[in-house]
Design brief:
heterodimer, A: about 120 residues, mainly alpha, 2 domains, B: about 240 residues, 13 helices, about 85% helix, about 0% strand
């Protein structure tokens, strides 16, 4: 019963997210808005519930499984991937290296910078 | 006689969603066991191996993706509630987030932009088509969100899903080596960089290194999914208007 309550709550927030996106014409995927709404609710309530915890743990621990049917969709794009394999693979590898190195550097620098500012304020 | 029976059974099964759903689950559990057996070698990522195995199976049996997806859609559907469920770990990391809020916010927003525009730029420079560039743009974001963004900006959601999985695998493979080269030892910094650039697959890898790196990676993944979903469609729309 616990799991059922949790999954129902997740679906309600997703539905609320989808409807709000349609009504307000926000350029954000419905489930993302649902996630934000749930996050705000949790912060506002100050605690989560066991049913929500069990449902979200169950879904997130098998998150990779959920990508599989979409990934199989690659077979529909075979021609495109073969035709553009070079730009696709170089863009993926290079961009991932750049993003990872840059975010690590930015995180280090901004933390150091802000830590200094806090010291000065003290 | 038996052959005819088998053919009849096949015709029946291929018209129901049961077969597509079952082979998805069976293939994934086998792929997952292989992954565990190989000591979580990132190259044997279960998503990658099950996608390859399923495609081979479908091509060999002459089954179309549409037929397969009648069953696969039940698994695929759960991506929506799974995205909503990300609010829970995000909430659990709330106190850590509050302490590091500003540096994390700066890193996530710049990381979302760097991830999207470096891939668009490199693909454009190497002559990829516009639709491929747009499908690449949300590649660093967790798949359910990336597919939603891709659809909105005019990419191909199913191509994006594949590119997202490949990005995650690349990030999980290169991460530790890159941080070593950059002489970064702080697990919170490593986790943030991993979550922004390699989403869930990178986060799974981060949890193997340390719980702290995993938690920060999960946090960064959720925040960058949110930041990219908000900024990217709007920004591309804006750039489009300038042209």
């Amino acid at each position: 019963m616990n799991f059922l309550n949790g999954i129902t709550l997740l679906l309600i927030y997703q539905l609320a997210g989808e409807i709000s996106v349609l009504l307000l014409r926000i350029p954000v995927p419905g489930p993302v808005l649902g996630m934000i709404m749930l996050f705000i609710t949790l912060v506002w309530r100050g605690r989560s519930s066991t049913s929500l915890d069990s449902a979200s743990t169950a879904l997130l621990s098998h998150l990779s499984l959920l990508f599989v049917p979409a990934g199989v969709g690659m077979m529909v794009h075979f021609d495109r991937i073969i035709n553009e394999w070079l730009p696709i693979s170089i863009a993926l590898i290079l961009s991932t290296v750049i993003t990872m190195a840059a975010t690590a550097a930015i995180m280090l620098a901004s933390r150091r910078l802000l830590a200094k500012k806090v010291e000065k304020d003290d | 006689m038996i052959e005819r029976d088998l053919a009849a059974i096949w015709v029946y099964l291929s018209t129901t969603p049961l077969l597509g759903l079952t082979i998805t689950l069976v293939t994934y559990s086998l792929a997952h066991q292989l992954y565990i057996y190989a000591h979580s070698n990132p190259l044997l990522n279960p998503v990658l191996t099950s996608v390859i195995a399923l495609i081979i199976l479908l091509v060999l049996t002459g089954t179309s993706y549409e037929t397969y997806f009648e069953g696969g859609q039940f698994v695929h559907f759960l991506l929506g509630p799974a995205t909503v469920a990300l609010a829970v770990p995000l909430y659990q990391q709330c106190s850590k987030l509050r302490k590091l809020f500003l540096p994390v916010a700066i890193t996530v927003i710049s990381g979302a932009l760097i991830g999207a525009f470096s891939s668009i730029g490199i693909a454009w420079f190497l002559g990829a088509s516009l639709q491929t560039q747009l499908s690449l743009a949300p590649k660093s974001v967790t798949a359910p969100v990336a597919m939603g963004i891709s659809e909105q900006i005019g990419g191909l959601p199913s191509l994006t899903a594949v590119l997202v999985v490949l990005t995650g695998i690349i990030g999980a493979v290169i991460g530790s080596k890159l941080f070593e080269l950059m002489r970064i030892k702080d697990d919170s910094v490593k986790g943030i960089a991993m979550g922004i650039s390699a989403h869930g697959i990178g986060t799974a890898r981060a949890f193997q290194v340390s719980p702290e790196m995993g938690a920060f990676s999960a946090l960064a993944m959720a925040l960058s999914a949110f930041a990219t979903a908000v900024i990217l469609p709007w920004l591309l729309n804006f750039l489009d208007m300038l042209n």
